[in-house]
């Protein structure tokens, strides 16, 4: 039985070229980049080169990138690091109810430390209202942190318009672009953001490496203390091989964005057309147009999602009930609750398919067919029981 992986928003396989690029940094060029001998200097050069590569792909200078252990640390660095450095200017932060827990829990930590956080609501498509941002802004607001694209429902936020609202205000603007990176063009010189988080394992790079873009002149208090790595912004011996792999993954992802956008649109269409033809009752969650192309979140009315996921797994298909952190426990998704309210049936029956490296038209057609058959079977059972 062929395994079909459609959970790329949780994590993604390493691209073969990424593995190839990384190997020398485990085997021969294993030096500590802070060491002054040759092998250390070679490791340092590899980091410098990787940083330049990623900076170019993000439209910025290499000095503005801080490598971290992933998206979670980048979000924490931005939120805690900025808030603690600037608390004398105010203690108010604006975020949304549908952020990743890396943002939500960092904000909750700040609340415990005396900060005031506004968690903006979203509409049924998962979008924050620009007007709500405007109304929530106060003289003591120091930071606005809103995600670029949502990891569960794919909705993209109106980042440019929110940036316009923040013009002339002291508040810094951070965006979690972990899911958007590699599927949507991100050029920080054109985006109105001061900080932006990304993570390698979502774009066929290794796990445990990410970065925070920090606009020139924006000051952060370090979250980790130790050595002077990353120009004193992030202590700890650099993960050289992972950084090299991250740069390779970034190059491949950014250079193939357009063709993959088209392919993922085709995949989405296959799912939707098949379910329509099979007369399955379903509704797509998230915004219809303002969306990340690689994620389809769908509710199948009356279907127990745990049973659907288990049945799919038995046929070799790996999908997800939502974010990786809540999968397993299958708690109601905080994103869907924010969009629809607690009592809505769509929350109990939502499943996320996310596309990436290795997926083919044939695979997605099989995913569509198997899902339709299982949904019909389970749907009939649940109607029978009730
Ligand atoms: C939107 C978003 N932000 C942050 C993260 C955390 O990134 P990492 O797994 O690299 O810590 C994720 C991962 O699921 C994510 O989807």
UniProtKB/TrEMBL annotation:
Signal peptide: none annotated. It comes from the Bacteria. Its cofactor is pyridoxal 5'-phosphate. The keyword Iron applies. Residues 4-367 form the Aminotransferase class V domain. The keyword ATP-binding does not apply. Keywords: Iron, Iron-sulfur, Metal-binding, Pyridoxal phosphate, Transferase. Its EC number is 2.8.1.7. PROSITE patterns: AA_TRANSFER_CLASS_5. It catalyses: (sulfur carrier)-H + L-cysteine = (sulfur carrier)-SH + L-alanine. One of its GO terms (molecular function) is iron-sulfur cluster binding. Belongs to the class-V pyridoxal-phosphate-dependent aminotransferase family. NifS/IscS subfamily. This is cysteine desulfurase. It comes from Halalkalibacter krulwichiae.
